[in-house]
Amino acid sequence: MGKLLIVGTVAFDAIETPFGKTDKILGGAATFIGLAASQFNVDSAIVSVVGDDMPQEYLDILSRKGIDLSGLEIVKGGKTFYWKGKYHNDLNARDTLITELNTLADFNPVVPDNYKDSDVVMLGNLHPNIQISVINQMAKRPNLIVLDTMNFWMDNTLEELMDAIKMIDVLTINDEEARQLTNEYSLVKAAEEIQKMGPKYVVIKKGEHGALLFHEDNVFYAPALPLEAVFDPTGAGDTFAGGFSGYLAATGNTSFNSIKNAVIHGSNLASFCVERFGTERMQDLEKVEVSKRLHQFKALTQFEIELQ
Q: Nearest to residue 67, comparing CAs of 265, 240, 237, 246?
């Protein structure tokens, strides 16, 4: 069984979409990544921090999925990271209403000893110095280090982010962020520039329009599955990252062909995440549902081209 180390937030989210709204519910990048990765045969652990206001029932959701929480620091008297957001009618744009770092402001990650030899490290969206600290704690070079980031870190900690990017194998960002990071409008040129920064693979997420994978001169495109209803896009990108990294940790194969499959598995799981608020859909997702939708993906993308 492959080992997967997940670094990111375990948090409270309050979400409003055109279809309804929630009070504080379980969220955070590491939460979505872990729930998605639990669909594969992996030994996974989360490195994160919460306050003692995090209900035990929320932590039990993760534990029941086989996720090791020995790297989750619980700060006595502390408050858990909290984000509140409101989505526009098209669900492609959102406004952040509240961000409270709380315990995350002083977070120093500690990797459990028995996960310092993890095969795959998935660095969720966090301060680049935290991501670098985790890499430096590993006892051996993982088979694959995947890093997710966002424009906030490009705006405020670009130098540190560039240091982190030099140390990784795969960078996952959205199309807007790829353009900002490289000052290139063409995503092909942007991916070329990012590969010069260090990563061998670049995954550019395009939301409802799928994802692009770049490696050297190779390009692969995975569509997003057309869905009847999108309820809440929160966590879809992190769910993609969890499916992507979970599949690669489970297979132990980091070839380009395997990474193409990982993109499909990530996209497949993300399609479930958006069907309900927060983590609700991922908590009770059955493997038979995942398999059925994978077959839909295959039917969507595979056909014989008749060459004249």
A: 246
- Band (pLDDT 50/70/90 cuts) for residue 209 is confident
Query: pTM score > 0.90 for this model?
Result: yes
294 DSSP assignment: H
Does the pLDDT of residue 238 top 90, yes or no? yes
Residue tagged 């809440």 (tokens): 232
The alpha carbons of the chain give a radius of gyration, in whole angstroms, of: 18
What mean pLDDT is reported for the chain? Answer: 94
Question: Among residues 3, 85, 7, 99, which one has the least CA distance to residue 49?
Answer: 7
Report which of 196, 198, 195, 179 is spatially closest to residue 187, judged by C-alpha positions: 179
Which residue type, as a one-letter code, is found at position 252? G
> Hey, what amino acid is at 184?
E
Edge-first strand order for the sheet with 42-51 is 68-75, 42-51, 2-7, 120-123, 144-148, 170-174, 201-205, 211-215, 218-222
Rounded CA separation 242/235 (Å): 10
User: What whole-number distance in Å separates Cα of residue 212 and Cα of residue 153?
Assistant: 22
- Indicate left, alpha or beta for 55 from its phi (over 0: left) and psi (-120 to 50: alpha): beta
Contact 148, 124 (CB under 8 A): yes
C-alpha span between 151 and 199 (Å, rounded): 18
How many angstroms separate the CA atoms of 280 and 274, rounded? Answer: 10
Measured CA distances, 253 to 15, 114, 133 (Å): 37, 21, 26
Other beta carbons within 10 Å of 110: 14
Q: How far apart are alpha carbons 235 and 192 in whole angstroms?
A: 27
- Whether residue 195 contacts residue 187, with contact meaning beta carbons closer than 8 Å, is answered with no
How many Cβ atoms sit within 10 Å of the Cβ of residue 280? 16
How many residues can be counted in the chain?
Answer: 308
211's tokens: 């994802």
